[in-house]
Amino acid sequence: MEHEAPTDRSLTVSDVDIPLDTVNDLEQARQLRRDLSRLMMEYQFAVDEVLTKVTILREEFVHLHSYNPIEHISSRVKTASSLVGKMARKNVPPDPQTIRESITDIAGIRITCAFIEDTYRVLETLIGQDDVRVIEVKDYIANPKPNGYKSIHAIIEIPVFLSTGPVQVPVELQIRTIAMDFWASLEHKIFYKFDGEVPDHLAESLSDAASIAERLDVRMEDLHREVHGTPAASTETPHDGVDDAVLAQLWRQLSAGSQSRGPLSA
Prior knowledge:
By secondary structure, the chain is an alpha+beta fold. It has helices spanning about 20-65, 80-90, 95-100, 115-125, 180-195, 200-230, 245-260, and strands spanning about 70-75, 105-115, 135-140, 150-160, 165-175.
């Protein structure tokens, strides 16, 4: 038998003999792919919205207080394959709203601060905004996990405005100090190195390191307060490049002009 000449078009379901239930499964899979693609887009937009809020706060603090409480920001959105795997493990139905309600760590933002008090200041400023709804806050700084892990975890919900209307999207926040982040990064690597079964001597060393990191945070914050005071008490002027003497002269000139014109007639 002669071989048929190859064609350029893709193979379709109609080209082969596939039972009807398999065809339905394929259609469901295609619909799920479309839903997940849109869902991932919404979560990426939500991350972008929160990053904009954080950037504005960061620049405002620098401008008004000559102080930046945020040292580093990172973000991520789960891949579709990672999300599908978690849906399978948690037996979550492939419905966008159910996915949003059942899996709250699809989008995540980590904010690293220099000092402990900054972590709370950043959290309070973010969740105090009118369009941010707080779903859950877990304070692992005040109440560390048994292994020594410390951080603030918050799940917030923000509106993403699409052409079809607003969609409420949850985003997970992690806010911690540099020392906490360093410890958590090392613990994470060790945990996966041993598939979750960390040897006792390493677990004990990690616990000791967490205590050292805590003491470092407290000591560095004390030093900062001793040198600079608290940011709330700061009276530093914004660095706008304009000399105080120039502003004073302008104020006198404008005040004199206003007085010479007198009050406006009725």
